[in-house]
What we know:
Elements: H1 4-21, H2 26-39, E1 56-58, E2 64-68, E3 75-76, E4 90-92, E5 97-98, E6 114-116, E7 123-124, E8 138-140, E9 145-148, E10 162-164, E11 169-173, E12 186-188, E13 193-197, E14 210-212, E15 217-220, E16 234-236, E17 241-244, E18 258-260, E19 265-268, E20 282-284, E21 289-292, E22 306-308, E23 313-316, E24 330-332, E25 337-340, E26 354-356, E27 361-364, E28 378-380, E29 385-388, E30 402-404, E31 409-410, E32 424-426, E33 432-433, E34 446-447, E35 451-452
Parallel strand pairs: 2-4, 3-5, 4-6, 6-8, 7-9, 8-10, 9-11, 10-12, 11-13, 12-14, 13-15, 14-16, 15-17, 16-18, 17-19, 18-20, 19-21, 20-22, 21-23, 22-24, 23-25, 24-26, 25-27, 26-28, 27-29, 28-30, 29-31, 30-32, 32-34, 33-35
Antiparallel strand pairs: 1-2
Amino acid sequence: MPSLLHTLSIALLSVLLCGSAVALDAGEIVALKDMQAEWGTQLGWRGEPSCNWTDVTCDSDGHVQELSLAAKQLSGSIPASIGKLRSLVSLDLSDNLLSGSIPASIGNLRSLFYLYLNTNQLSGTIPSSIGNLKSADQVRLDTNQLSGAIPTSIGSLQSVRNLVLSFNQLSGSLPDSIGNLQAVENLFLYNNQLSGSIPVSIANLRNAVSLSLSSNQLSGSIPDSIDKLQSLVSLDFAENQLNGSIPASIGNLQSLIQLYLYSNQLSGSIPDSIGNLQAVEDLYLYKNQLSGSIPNSISKLQKLVALKLHDNQLSGSIPASIGNISSLQQLYLFSNHLSGSIPDSIGKLHALRLLYLSSNQLCGSIPDSIGNLSELKFLLLDTNQLSGSIPNSICNLQSLHQLFLQNNTLTGVVPSWVCATNASYDLRDNHFSCPLPTCCSSTGNGLCAPCFA
């Protein structure tokens, strides 16, 4: 039987062997020491670099595999020696106060899977060496002060699924190489200063689920080939300078839930194919130069929650079939050239909370069926050519917060229930009969004047 001394000797030898197996290499020691010197006591690191340091994880060979330093209030720059951590798989420096540029040596981290440098104060350009991170699955550089162009080498990130560069000051055009990101699922480039046209190569992103280029200075037209992105759930090109028409091919995006094209310079009519977006819940086309009528096909959008077409040049009548969209909660059609009457079918929209039809050329009476909208909070019909009396059914709208009917040609008496409502209201500049209810002449929550004998 082995002696106790022999057993202890074997155990000690094992510890020594393991200790030698997990020793950091010289480059890793330099990198960790440089971080310790640059970022100070916030790290909580003491003594010589070690795999036992807080937020440092090593692999079985003793090489640094993960650095998890998010939200440590770190300040200063990222040391260039970080590129010596060649076994690094995950680097998380997000939510700190880091400044200076992203060192080109970051491209030496060829095993990197997760790169999180977001929410800092990093400046300068994105180094072209970023393209060396061919294993990267997640790259977040958003919410910094990065400037300059997106490097062409970005297209070499052929494994990346989530690429987030939003909330920076990036400029120049989108590189054609962006179309090489064939694994990308979420591409967020919004809130930058990108210009030029949307490259046709974007149609190669066949796995893209969310694509946001909003709040830039992009111009030109939406590529017809956009319909190649059959996996898209969210498409956001809002707040740019895009022109031309909405391509009919957009109706082929059968998985689309959110379509945001607002605040551009899009013109022409809304394509009839928009009715093919059977999954869409948010359809925001407002603040463009769209003309023509609202297509009847819009009534096919049975999952639609918010329809915002306001601030365009749409004409014709509100289609009666709009009452078939039973899921609709927000209907914004104000500031267009819509004419004709408000369809009685609007009273079928039992989920509706916001109805904004102001600043059009709508005529005829307010349909009595509007009183069926029990969830309605905002009813804005002002600045039209509506006539007839205020329907008493409106008093059924117990959730109403605002009732704006001013600047029409409404007649009859102002109903007494107006004084009992908790809603703020404006009934001015109509043709109501005198006398007005006493609440209309007070400084309460509503206005009614003038009236006519």
